[in-house]
Amino acid sequence: MRIYLLSFLFIIFFSACSTKNISYIKIENKTNSLYKTVTSTSKRIDKEEAKNFSKDIILYSKFLAHSYGVTTYALFHNTLINLGIKDKGLCYHYANDLLSFLKRKKYKSFEFKRIIANRNEYFEHSALILTRKDISFENSIVLDAWRNTGNLYFSKVKNDKNYEWELK
């Protein structure tokens, strides 16, 4: 009986060590999805650059949320900032910090612009778009790290049903 118990514990212990990292798989899937979205917008986008960009922005969005100390939903985190409990993590913090990060990368086959929704209203919202001269505004890609608290939201502008975007 004792040998069976030890064998069972041994199997449980070592099988627990062999599980795949779900977070890594989710990040990899999201990176691949963003890569496909980016490369589908223009034939002139360098594929290697798009791959690097996709990985960089997915990971940096998560890094920003961590560095801002975000542990709750975005709107609740905004309340904590407005009460003086937290310092950063509003949508424009994400947009500004992402833009600074992306400019340092010096991507050549696309550019980034600030966008805004609900201008001058209580729920004004800021994000970025990935675009280039041969991509219309509607087909540019929204990059919103705030919306899902560091889990980058992306879609074509025309497909974003939550906001009506305009250039800032």
Rg over alpha carbons: 20 Å
| Number of helices, where a helix is a run of at least 4 consecutive DSSP H or I residues | 5
**From N to C, what is the helix and strand string?**
HHHHHEEEEE
Strand order of the largest sheet: 4-3-2-1-5
Mean pLDDT, to the nearest integer, reads 90
Sheet/helix structural class: alpha+beta
The termini sit apart by 71 Å
The largest pleated sheet is described as: 5 strands, antiparallel
Count the strands? 5
Shape: globular
Helix content, binned percent:
40-55%
Beta-strand residue fraction: 5-15%
Protein name: Transglutaminase-like domain-containing protein
Task: Write out key terms for the chains shown.
15% strand; alpha+beta; 5 helices; 168 residues; 5-stranded antiparallel β-sheet; Transglutaminase-like domain-containing protein; 5 strands; 48% helix
